[in-house]
Amino acid sequence: MNCIVCIEYIIVAVMVLSAIFAVEWGDLLAAVVGMTAVSLFASVLFFFLQAPDVAMTEAAIGAAMSAAVFIFAIKRTQRYESEEEGAGWWLRW
Amino acid sequence: MVKRILAIIMLLIVGFWMANALSGVPFGEDKMLVGKYYLENVKEQTGAVNAVTAVVVNYRGFDTLGEVTVLFIASTGVGALLWRKKKERTAKSEGSVVLRTGSRILLPFIMLFGAYIFIHGHLTPGGGFPGGATIATAFLMLYLAFKDYEIEHKVFEPIEGLAGVGYVTVGLIGLAIGSYFLFDWIWQTWGWGHENIGRLLSAGFIPIIYTLIGIKVGTELTGIVDNMVREEVKGND
């Protein structure tokens, strides 16, 4: 298998993993970091798919600006999710 | 429980359907008629080496004006929602030494890189939107590093307005000289830069418009960040 394709598969796997973490983490600051990781790896993936302009936009908007907006929102509300469904995902199902 | 299972079944069905539909579409192989037309005529008609930029600013310039308008409305909405009579920075602690020193050193380079992206939009990948966003990240870094930092509102807001007005003015000049709004008058009527395609001074009004868009996007996103960072102060007056 071509090695560039291997790297792309690894990046996609990391993106899916970060997305699941971003949804499941109760600490919202950590969830924002997970969401930012999705954007960052998406921008790397765009670069591999030969779209460097989209990669630059994704890195600037998705990874930096939107994370900053979310962090400002968390700063004004609260950092941890409410504990109503605090059990892990394996119990919530 | 039942809801979740139903949702997952639904998701699988939609995903299967989308995968089936998209698997038949060839990706990046055969160019459609419009794409072929753009790629064959982009150099003579617009002078831009970067075909993406030529489509965004020249062929589809009116769409880009709409995009800029959407961003302007979003920024206005944030400003209207977060408007208070008296707002100040309320950060209690400075950024760490690493952040402060690093931002001092990196700031000019980030600004330069953003300006490079939008000035060279017709030559290299990128353009007004990524460049403006990069410049806004530089200001975001300043906000994070220094607890008393605020942008110069009296400078930023007129610049933002003037950049937007400049875009429409360039389009209106095209309407007056040529036949339609956002007609490329520098390239097609005046014929400037025909001999140096692929260098900075070419491609008609694309660098001008992308510089205006970059300035506008940068100041606008900085304004959004500024609106979100500063908080209301309960004054005695």
Mind explaining what this structure looks like?
The complex is a heterodimer of chains A (93) and B (237). By secondary structure, chain A is an all-alpha fold. Chain A has one domain (3-78). Helices cover 77% and strands 0% of the residues of chain A. Chain B has 237 residues and is mainly alpha-helical. Chain B has one domain (54-80, 92-232). Chain B is built from nine helices and two strands. Chain B has helices at residues 2-23, 33-46, 51-59, 61-81, 97-119, 128-145, 153-177, 185-190, 206-229; strands spanning 87-88, 231-232. In chain B, helix 5 runs antiparallel to helix 6 and helix 6 packs parallel to helix 9 (206-229). Chain B is globular and about 60 Å long. The model of chain B has no long low-confidence stretch (mean pLDDT 83).
Number of domains of chain A: 1
Helical amount of chain B: 55-70%
Number of domains of chain B: 1
Number of helices of chain A: 4
List unreliable stretches of 5+ residues of chain B: none
Q: Could you give a short account of the major beta sheet of chain B? A: 2 strands, antiparallel
What integer is the average pLDDT of chain B? 83
The total of beta strands of chain B comes to 2
* Subunit organisation of the chains: heterodimer
Share of helix among residues of chain A? over 70%
Q: Compute the CA-based radius of gyration of chain B.
A: 23 Å
Largest interface (CB < 8 Å):
A-B, 13 and 20 residues
Distance between the first and last residues' Cα of chain B: 56 Å
**Backbone structural class of chain A:** mainly alpha
Summarize the structure.
The complex is a heterodimer of chains A (93) and B (237). Chain A has 93 residues and is an all-alpha fold.
Descriptive tags:
A: 93 residues, mainly alpha, 4 helices, B: 237 residues, 2 strands, 68% helix
What's the topology here?
The complex is a heterodimer of chains A (93) and B (237).
Chain A (H helix, E strand, L loop, with lengths): L2 H22 L3 H21 L3 H25 L12 H4 L1
Chain B lengths: L1 H22 L9 H14 L4 H9 L1 H21 L5 E2 L8 H23 L8 H18 L7 H25 L7 H6 L15 H24 L1 E2 L5
Antiparallel strand pairs in B: 1-2
